[in-house]
Structure formats: C-alpha cells, structure tokens
Amino acid sequence: MRGRKATTDPLNSPLRGLFSKISRRFPYTAFRENFQYIILFILYKMDNMINNDALVINSKAAFIENVQRWVVLDKKLKLVNEKTRELRNMKHTSGDAICEYMKKNSSATNKINITNGHLQIYEKNEYSPLTFGYIEQTLSKIISNPEHVDYIMKHLRDGRELKTTTSVRGTYSSGEP
C-alpha cells in the first residue's frame, strides 16, 4: 500500500540498528532502556517528518504542527541572529584595533601570518547607498527646471518592479519570542 508505513512501533523501526550503536556506550541498564525509547521515538518522528507522504494525518493537526514548528524555528533564528550580530561587532572591534596598531607602528608589511594563512591590511573605498534623496539632489544640480526633476523622480519611483509575496511574521507580546 502506498503511503503506509510497515510499522508504527519505533522499536521495530529500521532505526533500531542506529540505536544499538548509540546505546552500547551507556552502561546503566535503566538509563539505556529509557534512552532507547526516547531516541527511537525522536528518530522515528524525524523519519516521518522527512517522509510526510508516508503518513495520513488530519490537515488541522498538520497546520498546528507547522505553526508550532514555525514558532520554534523563529525563536532559534532570533537567537542565532543575535549571536551573529555580537560576533560581527566583536570582529569589527578587533579589526579596528589591529588596523590602528598597524598604523601607529608603521609596519613595513601589511600582512600578518596566521596558522592557516594570513590577514591582510588594506584600504577600501565605500560608497554611500544610492538613495532617491541623493538622486533627486544630484539631478537638481544638473537640471534647473524642478518640474523635470520631479517628473524623472516620479518615473523612477513608479517604474520599479514590485513583487508581492505572502509570508508569516511573528508578533510577540513580551520582549522575547
């Protein structure tokens, strides 16, 4: 039968072999038995999540599960993004300190050897973003007629491609997700 699992008992699952490799590492029998059921259940559930076509479930239950999964993933992404932001700021601060040290000590070389390569100190030019305000200001310097500038700006704003998508956004009552 298509769409049906051979068994619903996690202990008879093909994942049992994987468990036996894991469970041999734990000497306490009671712990191993409880651990066995927990791991097999988790692996069985993961297997079912991967092979969703193999399960016949209520669409409302699937909807609720997807909402719960979305909230969990949203929370995890927020934590990862916060940590990434912290690490990026720390890296930026360290980079600024390295560059400042190199400038003060007038090092002859702009390379710093590290374990698996090198760091290179260099100067780069960063342009400010190309905004509508900047474009309008620049056009006003070139074109003396303000109506022409307004016409060009309207054409640029209205001529942009607009793409509409449907998405989910989380709004939380407390400060954390």
Question: How would you summarize the topology of this molecule?
Answer:
Layout: H1 16-23, H2 29-50, H3 59-104, E1 111-114, E2 117-120, H4 132-142, H5 146-158
Antiparallel strand pairs: 1-2
Helix pairs in contact: 1-2, 4-5
Tell me about the biggest sheet?
2 strands, antiparallel
Quickly give the structural class: mainly alpha
Q: Based on DSSP secondary structure assignment, what is the total number of beta strands?
A: 2
Please compute the radius of gyration using only Cα atoms.
29 Å
Contiguous runs where pLDDT drops below 50 for at least 5 residues: 1-15
Write the H/E string, N to C. Answer: HHHEEHH
Helical residue percent? Answer: 55-70%
The fraction of residues assigned to DSSP E strands is under 5%
Query: Termini distance?
Result: 42 Å
Count of alpha and pi helical runs: 5
- The gross shape turns out to be flat
Strand order of the largest sheet: 1-2
Average pLDDT over all residues:
77
Textual characterization of the structure:
The protein is mainly alpha-helical. Among the domains are: 55 residues, no CATH class; 33 residues. Helix content is 56%, strand content 5%. Helix 1 runs antiparallel to helix 2 and helix 4 packs antiparallel against helix 5.
Short key terms for the protein model shown above:
single chain; 177 residues; mainly alpha; two-stranded antiparallel sheet; 5 helices; flat; disordered N terminus
Could you provide a short overview of the structure?
The protein is 56% helix and 5% strand. It is mainly α and 177 residues long.
